[in-house]
Amino acid sequence: MKNSANYVKFKGLEILAIDYGTKIVGLGSFCPGNTPFPMPWGKLAYKNDDTLIDQLLEIIKREYFEVVVLGIPYYTDGKESDMTKRVKKFQKKLQSKLPEGVQLYDQDESLSSYEAEERMKSGARYNFKVDPNQIDALAAAIILEEFIQK
How far apart are CA 140 and CA 7, in angstroms? Predict the structure, then answer.
């Protein structure tokens, strides 16, 4: 991972990953070169896009995030779903409201929730069980892992 183009490009920058959902929005974070790997950061209850953007802007400013990575869901064959279109619409809204200097990227998030469940089942940290309260944040960390490995 340390030799990937994105690791080098974003070294030393605070990165926030977003796993957009219509009930829960998962968040992950990573600072290449300062933290060992992407970690679950937390979750937000989804009310609507405008409220979510306000909450994200507050977090970005408070925690000094410099890069935001938004997971975009595609079908496994790469085609867009209704949710893909919804997240892309959200992405445009978020982009227009981000503070100057904060970069926004997207990352295919196909199967990130499935991967999160599998990691929970095989990890002592989660007592080898799927924890629905933490799955969205772990999915966001996985989205960030995949982004940074490019």
Answer: 17
Rounded distance between C-alpha atoms, residue 107 and residue 9, angstroms: 16
Domain 5-148 has CATH 3.40.190.10: no
Q: Indicate the pairing of strand 15-19 with strand 67-72.
A: parallel
- pTM for the model stands at 0.95
Domains of the chain, by residue range, sit at 5-148
Based on the number of CB atoms within 10 Å of its own CB, is 66 exposed (0-12), middle (13-18) or buried (19 or more)? middle
pLDDT per residue as tens, the chain (150 positions): 788 999 999 999 999 999 999 999 999 999 999 999 999 999 999 999 999 999 999 999 999 999 999 999 999 898 999 999 999 999 999 999 999 999 999 999 988 888 898 988 998 888 888 888 899 999 999 999 999 999
- Tell me which residue of 68, 78, 73 sits closest to 88, measured CA to CA: 73
CA atoms of 131 and 126, how far apart (whole Å): 7
Task: Write out 88-134 in H/E/C secondary structure.
Answer: HHHHHHHHHHCCCCCEEEEEECCCHHHHHHHHHHCCHHHCCCCCCCC
